[in-house]
């Protein structure tokens, strides 16, 4: 499967003040446990440590659907939503290219 055929999300979440560390811990643990992602990047804003950006590339449409309907996704979603100061922003994307920088 070509990279541009893999479904992905870019997600922005803002934790309630002081809950940024917990949000990052849950999001990172969830990505590692799910097994549905081919790769992911979780980044923290320099100017606001309570803001998380996540780009997650799924192995396939089937892996994405399997994760989204899983008990793990439900559990993480409930825990994460409780930490947020505002609704998350999620944009569905497909990677165009990815390569290491020489």
TrEMBL record:
Top-rank taxon: Bacteria
InterPro entries tied to this protein: Dimeric_a/b-barrel
Protein name from the UniProt record: Antibiotic biosynthesis monooxygenase
